[in-house]
Amino acid sequence: MRVRRLAAWTALPLAVTLGLAACGSGGDGGSGGSDSSVVSIQIAEPKHLVPTNTTETSGSQVIAGLFSPLVDYDAQNKPYEVAAQSVTSTDNKVWTIKLKDGYTFHNGEKVTAEDYINAWNYGAYAPNGQDTNPFFEKIAGYADLQGKEPKAKEMSGLKKVDDLTFTVTLNEPYIDFKTTLGYNAFFPMPDAAFSAPGVLKDSYEQAPIGQGPFKMKGTWQHDSKIEVERYDAFPGEKPKVKDVEFRIYQQLTAAYADVLADNLDVLPTIPTESLSTAPSDLGDRYKTSPMSSFQFLAFPTFDKDYSNPDVRKAISMAIDRDEITKSVFKGSQTPARSFVSPVLPGYRDDTTGKSGEFNPTEAKKLYQAAGGPAKIVISYNGDGGHKDWVDATVNQLKANLGVDAVGSAEPKFADLLTKVEKKTPVGAFRMGWVMDYPTMEDYLGPLYSTNGSSNYYGYSNPEFDKLVKEGSAAKTQDEAIAKYQQAEDILAKDMPVIPLRFGENVFGHSSKVKNVEMDLFQRVNLVKIEAAS
Q1: Under a CB-based contact definition with an 8 Å cutoff, are residues 70 and 84 in contact?
Q2: How far apart are CA 313 and CA 470, in angstroms?
Q3: How many CB atoms lie within 10 A of CB 466?
Q4: What is the DSSP string of 280-322?
Q5: pLDDT score, position 33
């Protein structure tokens, strides 16, 4: 999720064509760019703004400013302590987390171990319906918080030692637990967030109280903007700007026009139709950087039309990834024939084998033999700039499989996610993933495990689940990677999704800001950015 997590745009991290005549911004695009203390950043409408319920990139961008993680990652993707003083274990099963002193929530409350314990229990308690719930499943006692009538409301594996120390006991050893703690599911929430123990206030999501470098300025203005201001009591590195306006756009082209006119400061994704001209349009304000996005086409495996792996493999073989990457994305993305990102140790460049090769003749034979549907619908979110590549894909499927194929746009990414969560018929559907934390497991467990937090396609393979579990419990990173690669090989046989492209950050900014950086999680670095004058 990531991503970090599920990504709304077209993975470069995500973009593509929508005519300028169709521009429509929820934010007031003409309000001007930054002054000496304010910067504006384009996002889509978040689905949620509660740390334990945020699994898409726009919400993550906002949350990243409001909260400070226990750990972050260095240039080698190794975790280092941020809000944590230390994270230690002698057996990878019982972990001790000591917090740095001096952190306070934006309402003045001192951050304590209980704030983490309370937030994690809230996220894990099934009736609360939090999207990151499965990320707590490795903690002892998690199972007792599941079901319609759970046996308990608190995980037995979380124990307070003192105000700044708590222990986390897992069900079994997990080599990457420290690495996972950079994910927003593991942020704390203050007492003020709750109306009663374990009961979140309805108002909290509209103005989340965190312990990060920025605090909310007012409330979430849905489909318009979210404003935050620097929190001067933050004990970590201070932001260079005073205020940030996250401006919500429905169309990328509207945002691109605004950044060209200096009416928007940062556009994290250049629309695909503008990739050819963006370098000259923006000059040295056109930027690229590595990122972890993975674009794929998912199938409702519970639907009889797509339940046969051969149908899914045939569709994969009928798509010319290289041509679409070249013609639509102008080479700004890389064709994907694997299920994990190239930025990670353990990545292999071709795990799909023949199923990832463009072979229209064999694709048609396989599709007909497998009894594929006469019509293929590809659903996508209209606010993410996916129309061009979806159109190109359906045209290839028409030509190469002899089927009727159409694209179907949902207004927002949140709308598409809601439909697939409810198993509303949408046909095949585009998905994007930006890592939650830098491990192979994060590209496998959440997306394809039977109870994975972002397994929207109903895929289930016990052997896959077993291998991911064994990788998590491995004693060394090399042993873990070997298990994860075996699990990835199973995905190549079952093909619940079709890998399409790996992306990079391709972004632009106004003349009013400098030091604009984007990380592997598709987030603007809110601490580094500053006014140009």
Answers
A1: yes
A2: 27
A3: 14
A4: HHHGGGEEEEEEEEEEEEE--TTSTTT-SHHHHHHHHHT--HH
A5: 40
**What pLDDT is attached to residue 332?**
86
Q: Residues for the chain: how many in total?
A: 533
Q: Is the peptide bond before 411 cis (omega within 30 degrees of 0)?
A: no
Q: Which helix (H) or strand (E) holds 175?
A: none
pLDDT at 36: 54
Beta bridge partners, 25, equal 249
Instruction: Divide the 533 residues of the chain into consecutive groups of 10 and give the mean pLDDT of each group.
Output: 44 28 33 62 95 92 98 92 98 97 98 98 97 93 97 98 98 94 97 97 97 98 97 96 96 95 96 91 95 93 95 98 93 94 93 97 98 95 86 97 94 81 88 90 94 89 97 92 98 98 95 95 95 87
Quick one: residue 353, left, alpha or beta (phi over 0 = left, psi -120 to 50 = alpha)?
left
Tokens of 83: 């809000």
* CA atoms within 13 A of residue 462's CA, in its CB half-sphere: 0
Alpha helices in 102-216 (DSSP H): 113-124, 177-180
| Domains identified in the chain and CATH numbers | 39-243+510-531 (3.40.190.10), 293-502 (3.10.105.10)
Q: Which residues contact 103 (CB under 8 A, 6 or more apart)?
A: 68, 83, 110, 111, 211, 235
pLDDT of 18 reads 24
- pLDDT, residue 27, reads 40
Query: Alpha helices of 23-167 — where are they, by DSSP H?
Result: 57-66, 113-124
- Alpha-carbon distances of 315 from 33, 35, 51, 121, 396, rounded to whole Å: 44, 50, 37, 42, 10
CA-to-CA separations, 357 to 319, 336, 349, 363, in angstroms, rounded: 8, 11, 13, 10
Tell me how far apart the alpha carbons of residues 398 and 409 are, in angstroms, rounded to a whole number.
Answer: 18
Give the per-residue pLDDT at 12. 33
What pLDDT does 1 receive?
Answer: 32
Half-sphere exposure in the Cβ direction for 74 (13 Å, CA): 5
| 3-state secondary structure at position 86 | strand
Distance between CA 264 and CA 280 in Å, rounded? Answer: 18
Q: Where are the alpha helices (DSSP H) in 9-99?
A: 57-66
Q: Which two tokens stand for residue 484?
A: 């994860």
The rounded distance, in Å, linking the Cα atoms of 505 and 56 is: 16
* pLDDT for the residue 297: 97
